[in-house]
Structures are given as structure tokens and as C-alpha cells.
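Q: Got a minute? One more chain.
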Amino acid sequence: MLFNNPDVWEVTLLSIKVSGLATLISLLIGLPFGTLLALSKFPGRSVLLTLINTGMALPPVVVGLAVAMTLWRSGPLGGLHLIYTPAAIIIAQVIIAAPVVTGLTAAALQALDPRLRLQLLGLGASRLQMVLSIWREARLPLLAALMAGFGSVISEVGASMMVGGNIRHQTRVLTTAIVLETNKGEFTSAIALGILLLLITFLINFALTWIQQRGAKR
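A: Always. Here it is, folded:
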């Protein structure tokens, strides 16, 4: 059976590792940057928000092209030898997911009553305490932003193929494996891998949704 094949589990674990790391890095970038855009007023803020919102719809193949050109041997970062490695896939996926997390974070925090910040500061809260409080207040849409970021990368194929090369035992992930099996005419294997990908996505989003809805009851 397909699921008794160690290669399948190797591909599955790499998919979870790569997309999980990309989502985590995107959260570390998007949460503070989205908060800054939501709470601060400065010249060029509208332009930045427009760029972030545009980035939420970036075609993965365009991201893959840009990252491949940058990491190519003759590219500006070619000396790092990252092309066709899991690190290259993570870089591409971060570029895809970070605008999603940033944009949704900014939108979630802007939807809060601005008087809440004034009340917190008026009660003597520090800037950091105020930010932590509004994150807690907006935890439900922030978890939705996290789920959206993860969903944008776990199902991504174009950039992963371009910068990872779909190399067996090195950079092959579930989405690129599905493409390979389809191109070979192995539709049964491709469907099984697709079901596995959907199952993983469902389980992870189920866990995040459970956390989200549990928080909603408090």
C-alpha cells in the first residue's frame, strides 16, 4: 500500500516541517508588523498597507521565480548554496504567508474599538502591556490569520517546485509529489497523496479552530 511506503512518510514529514517553520516565521514577522501598521500613524502607512494587501494575492510562481533568481548560483545570494534545498522552500513560503498574516493582523486590530487602547494606557498600562492586551482581545481573528497563513503554504506547489526542484529524499513535499505522480499517470497514488494532504490540513486546522473556539467561550 502507498501508506506503507517510507518515502510517503518522509515526504509528509518534510511538508509539515517546511510549512510549519514557514508559518511560524511568518507569524513572528506578521504579528508585530501588522500591529505596527494597525496602531501607528506615519507617512507612507497607506502605501505599506496597499503593498501588504497586494502581497496577499502574490502568485506563488512569481515568488518562486524571484527567490530562484536570488538564490541561483549567479544570483546575489548564490554563494549561500540554498537553491534546491528545504531552506529555499521555506524562504519562498515565508514570502507567500507573511503578507497574509500581516494584512489579517492589521485588519483584526483596526477593527477593535480605538477607545480600548486609550483606556488601557489611561489605567497605567505600558506600551507592551497594551499591545498584549489587544492581542488577547483580538485572539480569534489572529488565530484565523494564522490558519490562513498556514493554508497558503501547505497547499502551495509552484514556488516549492521552482526553488526546491522536487528532489527525492531532499526537497520533495506532498504537493510536488502529487504533481509528479500525476505527470506519470499514477492517478491512484496522486489521489491518495491528495487525501493525505487534505487530512493533514484538516487536522491542523481542527486543532487551531478548537483553540480558537475554546477562547471564544471565555
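A: Residues 2-216 form a domain with the MetI-like fold fold (CATH 1.10.3720.10).
Q: Perfect, thanks.
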